[in-house]
């Protein structure tokens, strides 16, 4: 790596010294500087675009050009006549200023070359071909090279640190609510332009009166210019691993016409490539949003899903994947559009891990525990969405969406504990949810705008849990407390749970536009939620019959009906004053909660006013500072209120508290963004502070390693502070960036009747240097450092993860491309290294120029790393976890590009 770094530095130096710089100012006819004017330099010998620039707020530009070469400079600006200038460079830097004249004609200016980047208001347009080096295969390969655009560790697209909320292709939604499917599957050679739409509004009627500064969408313009066309690719592959044969079949087909689009993505493989993870499934919103949260109310419906691990292909021994997704959009006329998607994902996963758990409070006398765990998971997930948008004219829009989830999941765990012995566990569930959304937007006139939004959620969750505990002696105290029959050969513990949720969320908005710089927004809303919760802990006897025990204290069953309502009104004032945009406001709420269980009813009603405010400072066209504050009321779900015993798992028992009250949080956010194309610098930063009062915490007692918890409202406020930022700068064909994130939290807890004050501080630092040469190998060098520092009263732990890495891609003899990725990990505590491991992946691709066939030999885990490690910190424990992973394998695949 040291030699490669030296080579890269030499390459940068040689490139820099072989160039001269030209700079100057672009003005209009009366001498005013023009910001965001485009300046391009075309080499007259090669006819290639050698350099480009965009003027800053002072009208300044600068370009790096070859010495002793002839160039044509082209300067353009919207509404101005394009200026062209021919000259030759020498050995010295140059200064050339330009004045543009107004263009009163309606004819479009014919540009010799397209700008790699153009900025038009809140829209940034990237010419994709200007950033390609020849080794790109998917959309994400292109996006990584665009200034200000990143692909995060979860595969989601971010622009200036904000997650992109929507991907469109030629203006049509592409799997609404997800960006990962587009980044991973749309072929790079189909993309002509990438349009980044900042301050994006789903409804054009509301764009001038709503705050959309956190909404970013991307529209992909396709290369094909025909009315109807197909594109995509089909990949078929086979390979070998240490034990089994490998296969993959991956069709990706896309059809686009002015009225209709159809997209299909398929994936069948056992190579560990997960097209759609469980995390993707639960994060997939379908474009739905929580209406009430913007009013200051946050109500939780809980999460009663199985405790599946969020596996990825570097944390599992084997993964078999079946995936199919289809998306369509059809507009029979200009007023009506239908769209929707369907997704199916089926995975079979085998996971093997070792875990060392150290309990940090010596007074509790909890024994440290070593465990081995072999898990088999099978998950079948389905998503379906249908939408209709009716917009007969500019003043009316009606939307309807229905979004459904259905899944069947099972998990078998063969678990061995140094404290409790062998424990076999079975979990399964078949939950579903149906979410419906109806919106109507009406513009009476330019000063009066209305919207009605209503959303209904129906959700049914039915997790089943079963644990077979072989060593009765280790579980005897807990079994006696549960009332189990001790005469059986082992303890076969089981639990049925059922949670049915209904939630209605509706609000009416009215905007009174006072003038061009201010408006008033009035809101009337209602949130109604009902949850029914049933659970039963029982024992399966040796003869297979079910025994319903009577516990020593309390009950093993629950039958709870919980209702929540929130009627609220809100007022907000929006004012544009110079560079400032101010949006102060408040909402007034009337809350009511009621739960019925064990033959009695507990209810509570109260009112609360929640203020909020946003201040936006527009320093320049592409630089702003934002400050926001909000007060929020948080309500818990029905399982926290249920006072009967609940078995989270065999070693974690829980009983709720119907006297729980809501918590109140104060949230303060500060953000800064700068997109400077004059010196190719992009900067963003976030600061977030939250203080939660009367937050819900658990009081926990231990019997050996078996915990029994109950929730309560803490008298001690929880505080969190987080910050993150990134600095990116380009130097010709070199891009460098520095990033960091910091998260600090403090909270109180009661364990064994004792109060402890816990603090955690997590730091991550990252650095990258990348090259983007057209005719030379490109390299990315980087270094990541993660520090986890936890203070748990009597114990302090620190874990470090060092990760240097290098990625290389090269176009060889025009027809071959070679890509390799190498990462080295050193996982350690303060004193010693706990585990060192590395990963090396590589692929060689052959595609003859203008051929539709592509041949790839790919190798994963070339170093045959056996396992990886990570640390986990709980409230009173620290664990070191070792995962066994897939072995080295090689796959040969053939791809046909349509």
Walkthrough of the structure:
The protein is mostly beta strands. Helix content is 5%, strand content 63%. It contains five helices and 53 strands. The protein has a 36-stranded mixed β-sheet that branches. The protein has a six-stranded mixed β-sheet with strand order 9-10-16-17-14-15, with no helix packed on it. A hairpin with a 6-residue loop joins strand 49 and strand 50 (853-860). The mean pLDDT is 88.
Summed up:
This protein is mainly β.
List the helices and strands and how they pair.
Layout: H1 2-17, E1 19-27, E2 38-43, E3 49-54, E4 60-66, E5 70-76, E6 83-88, E7 94-95, E8 98-99, E9 117-120, E10 123-127, H2 139-143, E11 149-151, E12 157-159, E13 162-163, E14 166-169, E15 172-173, H3 180-185, E16 191-198, E17 216-222, E18 229-240, E19 245-256, E20 260-269, H4 278-283, E21 297-299, E22 318-333, E23 336-359, E24 369-393, E25 396-417, E26 421-429, E27 432-445, E28 448-461, E29 464-469, H5 472-482, E30 491-515, E31 518-540, E32 546-547, E33 557-577, E34 580-597, E35 600-620, E36 623-635, E37 645-649, E38 652-655, E39 663-676, E40 681-693, E41 696-703, E42 706-713, E43 718-731, E44 734-751, E45 754-771, E46 778-791, E47 796-812, E48 816-829, E49 833-846, E50 853-860, E51 867-873, E52 877-884, E53 889-897
Parallel strand pairs: 1-7, 1-8, 14-17, 21-36, 38-42, 41-44
Antiparallel strand pairs: 1-4, 2-3, 2-5, 5-6, 9-10, 10-16, 11-12, 12-13, 14-15, 16-17, 18-19, 18-53, 19-20, 20-22, 22-23, 23-24, 23-52, 24-25, 25-26, 25-27, 26-29, 27-28, 28-30, 29-30, 30-31, 31-32, 31-33, 33-34, 34-35, 35-36, 36-39, 37-38, 39-40, 40-43, 41-42, 43-44, 44-45, 45-46, 46-47, 47-48, ...
């Amino acid at each position: 790596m040291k030699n490669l770094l030296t080579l890269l530095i030499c390459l940068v130096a040689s490139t820099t010294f072989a160039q001269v710089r030209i700079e100057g100012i672009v003005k209009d006819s009366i001498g005013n500087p023009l910001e965001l004017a485009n300046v391009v330099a075309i080499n007259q010998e090669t006819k290639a675009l050698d350099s480009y620039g965009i003027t800053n707020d002072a009208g300044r530009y600068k370009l790096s050009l070859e010495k002793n070469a002839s160039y044509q400079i082209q300067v353009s600006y919207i509404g101005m006549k394009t200026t062209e200038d021919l000259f030759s460079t020498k050995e010295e830097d140059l200064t050339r200023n330009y004045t543009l004249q107004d263009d009163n004609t309606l004819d479009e200016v014919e540009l010799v070359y397209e700008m790699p980047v153009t900025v038009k208001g809140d829209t940034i347009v990237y010419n994709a071909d200007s950033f390609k080096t020849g080794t790109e295969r998917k959309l994400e390969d292109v996006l990584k090279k665009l200034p200000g655009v990143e692909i995060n560790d979860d595969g989601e697209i971010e622009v200036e640190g904000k997650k992109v909320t929507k991907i469109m292709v030629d203006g049509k939604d592409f799997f609404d609510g997800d960006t990962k499917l587009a980044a991973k599957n749309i072929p790079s050679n189909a993309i002509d332009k990438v349009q980044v739409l900042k301050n994006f509004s789903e409804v054009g009627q509301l764009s001038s009166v709503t705050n959309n500064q956190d909404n970013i969408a991307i529209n992909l313009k396709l290369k094909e210019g025909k009315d109807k066309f197909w594109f995509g690719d089909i990949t078929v592959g086979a390979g070998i691993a240490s034990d089994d044969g490998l296969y993959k079949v991956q069709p990706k087909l896309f059809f686009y016409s002015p009225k209709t689009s159809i997209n299909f993505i398929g994936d069948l493989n056992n190579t560990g490539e997960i097209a759609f993870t469980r995390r993707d499934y639960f994060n997939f919103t379908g474009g739905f949003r929580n209406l009430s949260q913007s009013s200051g109310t946050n109500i939780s419906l809980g999460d009663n899903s199985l405790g599946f691990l969020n596996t990825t292909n570097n944390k599992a021994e084997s993964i078999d994947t079946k995936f199919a997704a289809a998306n369509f959009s059809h507009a029979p006329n200009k007023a009506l559009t239908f769209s929707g998607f369907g997704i199916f994902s089926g995975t079979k996963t085998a996971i093997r891990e070792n875990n060392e758990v150290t309990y940090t409070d010596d007074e509790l006398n909890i024994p440290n525990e070593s465990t081995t765990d072999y898990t088999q998971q099978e998950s079948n997930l389905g998503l379906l969405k249908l939408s209709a948008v009716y917009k007969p004219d500019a003043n009316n829009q009606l939307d309807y969406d229905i979004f459904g989830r259905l899944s069947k999941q099972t998990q078998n765990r063969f678990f061995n504990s140094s404290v409790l012995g062998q424990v076999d566990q079975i979990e399964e569930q078949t939950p579903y949810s149906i979410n419906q959304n109806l919106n109507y937007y009406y513009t009476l006139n330019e000063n009066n705008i209305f919207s009605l939004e209503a959303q209904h959620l129906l959700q049914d969750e039915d997790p089943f849990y079963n644990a077979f505990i072989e060593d009765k002696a280790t579980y005897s105290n807990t079994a006696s407390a549960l009332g189990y029959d001790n005469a059986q050969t082992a303890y076969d513990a089981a639990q049925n749970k059922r949670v049915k949720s209904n939630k209605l969320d509706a609000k009416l908005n009215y905007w009174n536009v006072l003038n061009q710089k201010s408006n008033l927004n009035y809101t009337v809303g209602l949130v109604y939620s009902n949850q029914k919760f049933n659970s039963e802990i029982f024992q399966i006897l040796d003869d297979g019959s079910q025994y319903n025990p009577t516990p020593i204290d309390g009950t093993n069953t629950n039958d709870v009906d919980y209702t929540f309502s929130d009627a609220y009104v809100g007022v907000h004032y929006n004012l544009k004053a110079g560079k400032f945009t101010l949006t102060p406001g408040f909402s007034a709420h009337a809350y009511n909660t009621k739960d019925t269980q064990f033959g009695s009813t507990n209810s509570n009603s109260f009112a609360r006013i929640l203020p909020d405010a946003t201040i936006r400072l527009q320093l320049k066209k592409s630089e702003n500072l934002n400050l926001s504050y909000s007060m929020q009321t948080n309500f818990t779900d029905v399982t926290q209120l249920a006072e009967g015993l609940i078995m989270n798992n065999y070693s974690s028992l829980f009983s709720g508290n119907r006297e729980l009250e809501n918590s109140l949080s104060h949230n303060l956010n500060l953000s800064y963004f700068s997109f400077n194309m004059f010196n190719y610098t992009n900067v963003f930063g976030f600061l977030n502070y939250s203080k939660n009062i009367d937050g819900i915490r658990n009081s926990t007692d231990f019997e050996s390693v078996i915990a029994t918890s109950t929730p309560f409202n803490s008298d001690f406020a929880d505080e969190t502070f987080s910050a993150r930022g990134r600095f990116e700068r380009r130097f010709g064909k070199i891009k460098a960036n520095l990033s960091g994130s910091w998260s600090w939290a403090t909270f109180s807890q009661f364990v064994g009747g004792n109060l402890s004050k816990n603090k955690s501080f997590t730091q991550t630092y990252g650095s990258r240097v990348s090259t983007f040469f057209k005719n030379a190998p490109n390299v990315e060098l980087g270094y990541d450092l993660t520090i986890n520092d936890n203070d748990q009263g009597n114990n302090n732990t620190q874990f470090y993860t060092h990760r240097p890495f290098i990625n290389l891609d090269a176009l060889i003899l025009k027809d071959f491309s070679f890509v390799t990725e190498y990462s080295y990990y050193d996982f350690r505590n303060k004193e010693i290294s706990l585990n060192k491991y590395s990963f090396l992946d590589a692929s060689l691709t052959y595609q003859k120029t203008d051929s539709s066939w592509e041949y790839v030999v790919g190798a994963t885990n070339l170093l045959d790393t056996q396992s990886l490690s990570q640390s986990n910190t709980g409230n009173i424990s620290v664990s070191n976890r070792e995962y066994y992973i897939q072995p080295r394998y090689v796959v040969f695949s053939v791809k046909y590009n349509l």
